[in-house]
Each structure stands twice: as structure tokens, then as C-alpha cells.
């Protein structure tokens, strides 16, 4: 889902253009406030992904369904009776998250992250600006592989979508553990790098 392909139709477009497009897509996802606008943006981004040669739509959209269902459950549990149109809120929120994932998938599929980091270094941006970008896009593919492995292991164990709460728990708990573990490894590596520079 989040892996660079040098064969993408848009891989030759300049990094500045792609960063600007990513920023505009993310801004549109947050600014659009109705279902029709969000659905149009999703159709546009899906069309761009398809034109770029991306074929991982099933993994892109189905991989986040458990998290969307959990968020929807939270909306209905905590916001019920507050005078908010919960159907509209959940539809817009779900489409917004799908748009964010689609824009990120398009960016990472068509952009070599090392060239982005090099451009940020050439622009004399501080390490605190470009390092999080590198870490984010460097470890998204690993988290994606971990999620696929967890889903496969749970399927082998017989935990399927027929029991949604058990299924969500069996995926969320290991993913949170893996994310925290990777975060610790990154923090330790960054600390040791800084310490070596100061010595």
C-alpha cells in the first residue's frame, strides 16, 4: 500500500509538485464538510491511483475498515443524544479517513522518500522537520506488512469477522504493541545518534 514504485506514471513528476498536491489533498479532505464533496475527492484520488498503476485498493481500503468501525462505534456511544446528525458525521469522517489514506498512498507510491528528504536537507530545513517525514514513510510499509501478518495469523486461529469485537481486539492489541515497540526502537536509535554527534 505505502511502497514506492519507480514505474508509476507520476514518478517523474517533480517532488515539489507532488508535495504541493499532497498538501492540497489533505487540506481538501479536512475542509470538505459534506458527503458528496468527500465522495468526489475519494473518486478523484482513486482514479489518480489507478492511473498511476496502483492496484492495492483492496488492501488500502479493507485494511482500515476495523479502525473505522471502532471509530463509528465510539461516535454512536459517546455522541448519541447530543443533537448531532450521527449518520452524516460518521459518513464524512469515514470518507475523510479514506481520502487521507488515498492521498498518502498516491504520494508514497509515486515519490521516492529519499529524494524528498534530500530536498528538505538542501533547503536547510532542520533535522526535526525532515526526520519525522522520513520515519513516517519509512515505517508505514513495515506496519502494513505487520498488519497483514496479524490478520493472517488471526484467520488461522479461527478469529474472523463474524465476531467483530473479538476480531477488532485481536488486531488492535498486537498492532498497538508493534507500533509502540517500533517507536521505542526509533527513539533509542535517534538518542544514540544525537549522543554520538555530541561526543
Automatic annotation (TrEMBL):
Name of one Pfam family that matches: CbiQ
Signal peptide: none
Highest taxon above the source species: Archaea
Membrane topology: Multi-pass membrane protein
Main location as per UniProt: membrane
Transmembrane segments annotated in the record for this chain: 20-52, 59-78, 98-117
InterPro entries xrefs: ABC/ECF_trnsptr_transmembrane (IPR003339)
Alphabetically ordered keywords of this record: Membrane, Transmembrane, Transmembrane helix
Cellular localisation: Membrane
GO cellular component: plasma membrane
Keyword Transmembrane helix: yes
Annotated protein name in UniProt: Energy-coupling factor transporter transmembrane protein EcfT
Amino acid at each position: 500500500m505505502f511502497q514506492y514504485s519507480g514505474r508509476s506514471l507520476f514518478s517523474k513528476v517533480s517532488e515539489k509538485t507532488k508535495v504541493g498536491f499532497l498538501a492540497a489533498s489533505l487540506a481538501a479532505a479536512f475542509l470538505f464538510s459534506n458527503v458528496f464533496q468527500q465522495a468526489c475527492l475519494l473518486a478523484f484520488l482513486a482514479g489518480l491511483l489507478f492511473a498511476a498503476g496502483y492496484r492495492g485498493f483492496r488492501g488500502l481500503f479493507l485494511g482500515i475498515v476495523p479502525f473505522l468501525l471502532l471509530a463509528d462505534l465510539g461516535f454512536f456511544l459517546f455522541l448519541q443524544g447530543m443533537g448531532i446528525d450521527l449518520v452524516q458525521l460518521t459518513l464524512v469522517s469515514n470518507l475523510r479517513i479514506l481520502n487521507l489514506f488515498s492521498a498518502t498512498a498516491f504520494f508514497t507510491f509515486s515519490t521516492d522518500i529519499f529524494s524528498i528528504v534530500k530536498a528538505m536537507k538542501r533547503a536547510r530545513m532542520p533535522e526535526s522537520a525532515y526526520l519525522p517525514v522520513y520515519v513516517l514513510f519509512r515505517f508505514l510499509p513495515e506496519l502494513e506488512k505487520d498488519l497483514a501478518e496479524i490478520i493472517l495469523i488471526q484467520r488461522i486461529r479461527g478469529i474472523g469477522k463474524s465476531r467483530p469485537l473479538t476480531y477488532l481486539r485481536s488486531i488492535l492489541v498486537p498492532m498497538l504493541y508493534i507500533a509502540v515497540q517500533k517507536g521505542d526502537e526509533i527513539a533509542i536509535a535517534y538518542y544514540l545518534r544525537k549522543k554520538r554527534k555530541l561526543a
